[in-house]
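Fill-in record for TonB-dependent receptor.
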Amino acid sequence: MHKRRLTARRAGFHISALALAIATTPLWAADEAAVEHVNVVGQAASMDLSLKEQRRSDSVESVVHADGVAQLPDENAAEALQRLPGVSVERDQGEGRFVSVRGLGPDLNSVSINGTLVPSPESDRRAVALDVLPAELVQSLTVVKTLTPDMDANSLGGSIEVESLSAFDHKGLFYTGSTEASYDDNTGETSPKFSGAVSDRFSLGDGTDNFGIAAAMSWQERDFGSDNVETGGAWDFEDGARLESLEQRDYEITRERSGLGLNFDYQADDYSSYYLRTLYSRFKDTETRNAAGVEFADAQLPGESGDAEGWRELKDREETQEVQSYVLGGERLMGQWTLNAQAGYSQSSQDTPGHIAGATFAGNDDFADVGFNDSKKPHLNIGSEFSDPANFSLDEVEWAEEDTTDTEKNIKLDLARDYELAGHAAQAKFGGKLSRRDKDNDTQIWTYEDFGDFGFSDEQLSMANFTKGEVDYGLGHFGPGLSADNIESLLGDLDRSEFFNEEESRVNDFDMSEDIDAAYLMNTVDIDDLRIIAGLRYEGTEFTAKGTGIRDGEFESIEADSDYDHWLPGLHARYQLNPDTQLRAAWTNSVVRPTFGQLAPGFVIDGDEASFGNPTLDPLESSNFDLGIEHYLGRAGVVSAFVFYKDIDNFVYNSDLAGTGEWLDFAEANTFANGDSADLYGLELAYSQKFDWLPAPWNGLLLGANATFSRSDASISGFDADSGTFRERDIDLPNQSETVGNLMLGWEDDKLSLRLSANYKSEYLYEVASITDKAHDLYVDDQTFVDFSAGYFLTKGLQLKFEAQNLTDESYYVYTGSRGYNAQYEEYGPTYKLGLTYTNL
């Protein structure tokens, strides 16, 4: 019997007898050396390793791999992924956070770390903000776009798989350490960062280098900010395009990231291996937001002036997100059988201690001769009296605290048997998974108002007692900022129990559980140059939601539950045209549950107005078709083209049910509803190559480019109160960008590495207005980010690095209906970084 040696990695990376049979072909022979040990340095080596993983995968996937110094090429996991075909990111304060795949929104994708699902720390989302994960803790990132039956079926755009560092990624002792300073051009602040990783192998028992330990850590504190002007879409389009209100906002932020990963691998013998993967990440965000706004007495055109009410507002909060993940698993070869077992536990949480959610100072009198110019980036025209604190008085303070926890526990078992089918290498595989997820949210809100009734004089409430210096605002004149300490001092003299807002507190609380039982059966067969995978996956879901609603001042407990089953067939084919070219085709089916915010059971009914979540929503179901070709061009080179089509049922959108059913007599009944169906289709192109055959110095050139072009067709329906009839209108899928593209030009030799990259994402529908009000739909404008990085090896192991991000000072712009009408405009400025990394190369 042939003796096989395990790689001591998780199940997805082992080589079965079926894979060994294929290893005699040129496709696998070129990759064999990369399976056991990875020790690469530089852009080309990292790209080459990523392409090898992509090449031998049974799925359509894209990979980002850390280089030899155990660092991804970007600040965090989200920004590293945006370089891949079909991938873009949603940004927060200029930093990449949530990942979109093939133009579809982040909530339609799943994220796993070392094989176990990562829950979301945010109370209303499924999407995981990947900037929580420091890049130093990650060895590779994979976006799987066609799911095989042995994978969770909970992604529509793609499944994002995060692999952390293993001692078996390197030969013997490995260590690296980095230090960095970053400068934010918008605020003029300089911030530190430190990171490091170490791994080694040890001999236990009769084995040699059969036990590995790997550890990685990272800490960063970044001070930065942004300038913002927004209308929230408050445009009156009935009499021209007249603006009703606008607000200026200044953000000052301190963002601290820290993370620790500790992994163990043990290869007991030639037939058994075990692993323990642990990861802890902490993301602390301290934000101070000063706002100054006006509401016009009569909606105005640019250049007009009139009376307006004015206000000042402060928000000051500290928010901590934590992600922890523990995965224990093993693999056992038993003749022709391979057994894989894994147990996973992960928890995400968001803790927002007591803070000023909003302290509002109202103008004592209306301001005269107030106007604005420029409908895209409105500039407020107002006299100096708007900057005088004596003209404002404290009106209301909202004090809030919130705690969210999302826990995922799962266990899965996979059993595979290699055999021959009519003389062809084949493998039968089956298994199951039990997943138990619990998400809860606890919100408490106190609303302080009517301060005069509690003995405060007009003089004590004057804004002059609560100011703190001038606000550094880059989009116009702002005036003085507000002091959180002074506001908190005033609140400290009050009995806060008298201000508890029971309605807002209880309605936002919920407890949801989602239990999923899954089983699958699949078979793989290799017929000469053709590999076929056929299978069926079953997922049964039990969902329960508990919360509280309020109906005309009376509280009601609510509990909703639903059960549903899905049978999900799949078919994959990969055909080797020649040693460097392969065709891929796949038909898959997936199911994505609505977000927790959409499923929230709480409701508010006040007279003829209502707003509520919808825990009875159906999950999104999609049939997916992919067809493509890949041609590999030697080291770090590939050209590929894929077409894809998704037939989606039950997509979720905002809806007003007033005038229908039980909401027949209501003026508003805002909730979420399932759309009937939607179609998404597109083309995905990618090219990368290292020109090492050119004469020096041109042999150091690298070029990478990819673009995804997609279109979607969807329709929504709702009741039109004016006509008394149901209406329909066509929309794009929310959060779907029609064009996503990347361009990278690099050059490197043994000492110097340079990279200039650009990332483009076209506009997308952000929020749907009412069925009859297309003009107030909100869209996020297209964005192009340009970054530059350079690295120089001062010695063999010591590298000096420089990075410049957002060189073009790209802004974030949301518009109302058409591009000329602001909903939100925000500027961040570029960031510059200088650092040193030492590695025992």
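KEY FINDING: Residues 22 and 28 are 7 Å apart (CA to CA).
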